[in-house]
């Protein structure tokens, strides 16, 4: 092999520079580095026999070789930096966020309107000094009826058609049995009333009392069950809230005051409240209570059965026999109680025409709350 001339080496350098300038990737660039400067590269080969040249020529070829190597290195370096910059710009473009795109929303869950209603209701009563207590949904017949002064086979039981588990056990039709449970819970630990079988005749409760129970002031939320067809305002499962106050000297005026204060706190200060005589075996006297219908502005509609009033619940002064069942002496104390439907209240507050929508879990409905 004859040694390349200085001109040939310069041409090689030009060729390499052109190839490097046209490289489109870092790996292609690396290939070119190997092709010219590698152990078997073109430039390396062109400079191989330089030692055998006469001195003058060796100087010229040597200089050309050094220049060619410098040009090659700086061309590789320059193009390398350009390609790195292009790659970085590409990555940045790919990572860019388009802030004008609509966001991917995260759906936040929230309380069911019935639970919101219940929480607010309890908050109001707790604010008035009542304690929240609960009782079982599967209840003794003796507490759902007998302890509440229902004589055997009394027709009033038919008004609350029931689901029975056994002859003695049923799904409670109202939260009123918790009245008796709450009163007995006020007796001190040593009083036999605390340990009485719930099914014992009510008179036994008072007869066996060995203490003077303090006043009972409770509010009782809970689910209740009745065999009923579904209408705009009736369901077979529904929530009630019961309120019971037993103390010395409680009158119907206290009942009206507390109830009206509660209804106005929950439904608004302009709410009109109406009491009408009613009958419940466990209160005497008894009254149902209604508020003005919001759907028709009290002019009369399907929701209020054309009356302009929506019945919310029943109330009255606790019957002496129920005080006895709770182990209280009716000659010493008196009390009031009332109970109402939570769905009915929510319907009136949020203008929900059909109770069923509270149980269907249709998201289009629930999202409105
Ligand atoms: C009672 O349940 C009595 N325990 C209330 C009571 C308590 C009276 C304390 C005196 C003292 P009534 O059956 O009327 O009463 O029901 C009370 C309220 O529960 C009704 O006014 C209504 O708001 C609601 N309610 C009754 N039945 C249903 C039903 N099927 N679906 C939805 N709500 C109902």
**Element order: H for helix, E for strand:** HHHHHEEHEHHEEHEEEHEHH
Helix content: 25-40%
Characterize the biggest β-sheet: 7 strands, mixed
The CATH architecture designation of the largest domain is: 2-Layer Sandwich
Mean pLDDT: 93
Shape verdict: rod-shaped
Stretches where pLDDT is under 50 for at least 5 consecutive residues are none
Q: Report how far the terminal alpha carbons are from each other.
A: 92 Å
Q: Please list the strands of the largest sheet in the order they lie side by side.
A: 1-4-5-9-8-7-6
Bound molecules: adenosine-5'-[phenylalaninyl-phosphate]
The CATH class of the largest domain turns out to be Alpha Beta
Total DSSP helices = 12
DSSP strand count:
9
Helix/strand-derived category reads alpha+beta
Radius of gyration: 45 Å
What does this structure look like?
The protein has 369 residues and is α+β, with helices and mostly antiparallel strands. It folds into two domains: 6-95, no CATH class; 113-366, BirA Bifunctional Protein, domain 2, CATH 3.30.930.10. Helices cover 39% and strands 18% of the residues. It has twelve helices and nine strands. It has helices spanning 6-21, 26-37, 42-46, 55-95, 113-127, 141-144, 177-185, 202-207, 252-267, 320-325, 342-350, 363-366; strands spanning 131-132, 138-140, 169-171, 216-225, 237-247, 273-280, 283-292, 309-318, 334-341. A seven-stranded mixed sheet has the order 1-4-5-9-8-7-6, with helices on both faces. It has a two-stranded antiparallel ribbon with strand order 2-3. Strand 6 (273-280) and strand 7 (283-292) form a beta hairpin. It is rod-shaped, with a radius of gyration of 45 Å. The model has no long low-confidence stretch (mean pLDDT 93). The chain binds adenosine-5'-[phenylalaninyl-phosphate]. Adenosine-5'-[phenylalaninyl-phosphate] is lined by residues 160, 174, 176, 226, 228, 234-235, 238, 240, 242, 280, 283, 286, 311-316, 337-341, 343-344. Residues 160, 174, 176, 226, 228, 234-235, 238, 240, 242, 280, 283, 286, 311-316, 337-341, 343-344 line the site of adenosine-5'-[phenylalaninyl-phosphate] (FA5).
